[in-house]
Amino acid sequence: MPGKLFGLGLGPGDPELITLKAHRIITSAPVIAYPAPDTGPSFARQIAERYLKPEQVEIPVVMPMRVERYPAQDVYDAAARDIAAHLDAGRDVAVLCEGDPFFFGSFMYLFERLEADYEVEIVPGVSSIMAGAAALRRPLTARNDILAVIPGPIETEVMRARIETSDAVAIMKVGRHFARIRDLIRDMGLIDRAGYLERVSLDNERVFPLADVLEDAAPYFSLILIYKGQEDWISRLPILTKDHPA
């Protein structure tokens, strides 16, 4: 019988936010795959590292981290072939995913290539948005609020339109787009309603009112949360400051 493919959501970074189900599969699967940059360690592997065993086979899916476009499809094609070889040999494969596998997760591209031929199980994970709201100590949405999740790289006017029509906003993939996004939020009169977070749930987590952030760039693992919905008491909550750099 072929092996089973698992897409495991690991949450935002704190190993204790891995679900019990994901932990059970991580510790029992004979093969572990995970996304990795071409320089430096894999963040997904770091989250799960304490639960891995020496006898497990590891498959790093190496994706070059650079601004210019890279033939990512070739990387996923090769990784799918490597994973399929283990599945065909009857070995289960667990793919580690930061956050949730189907929420901006790279696992979806392996799923696209393999789900027609193999049994696949998706284990959801804690999203950085939910972890961010907890770190900010401010509800994300309430009652009939409309939440918009906006990727930072989209055009400024498209982002403006999405913010205008939403009650709560989570802007992800902020990174090098930070200064432009902050200027837009200030121009819209929402700077005092916005919280900035980076590396949520990790030891070097940072949380600030967006207006207090002086830098013009942000790390990849950063997000901005805005509340402008129906619950005025949420808008009046102070935005905390937490700065524990590594």
What does this structure look like?
With 246 residues, this protein is α/β, with parallel strands linked by helices. It is 30% helix and 22% strand. The protein has eight helices and eleven strands. A six-stranded mixed beta sheet has the order 6-7-10-8-9-11, sandwiched between helices. The protein has a five-stranded parallel beta sheet with strand order 3-2-4-1-5, with helices on both faces. β6 (147-151), α6 (156-164) and β7 (168-172) form a beta-alpha-beta unit. α3 crosses α4. The relative contact order is 0.16. The mean pLDDT is 93.
Quick overview:
With 246 residues, the protein is of the alpha/beta class. Helices cover 30% and strands 22% of the residues.
Essential attributes:
246 residues, alpha/beta, 11 strands, six-stranded mixed sheet, five-stranded parallel sheet, 8 helices, 22% strand
Write the layout of secondary structure elements.
Elements: E1 5-9, H1 20-28, E2 31-37, H2 43-48, E3 57-63, H3 72-88, E4 93-97, H4 107-114, E5 120-123, H5 128-136, E6 147-151, H6 156-164, E7 168-172, H7 178-187, E8 194-198, E9 206-209, E10 222-227, H8 232-236, E11 242-243
Parallel strand pairs: 1-4, 1-5, 2-3, 2-4, 6-7
Antiparallel strand pairs: 7-10, 8-9, 8-10, 9-11
- Percent strand equals 15-25%
User: Helices and strands, in N-to-C order?
Assistant: EHEHEHEHEHEHEHEEEHE
Cα-based radius of gyration, to the nearest Å: 19 Å
Number of strands: 11
Low-confidence stretches: none
Give the strand line-up of the largest sheet.
6-7-10-8-9-11
Helix content: 25-40%
The quaternary structure here is: single chain
Q: In DSSP terms, counting alpha (H) and pi (I) runs of 4 or more, how many helices? A: 8
Mean pLDDT: 93
Approximate shape: elongated
Q: Give the biggest beta sheet.
A: 6 strands, mixed
Distance separating the two termini: 47 Å
Structural class: alpha/beta
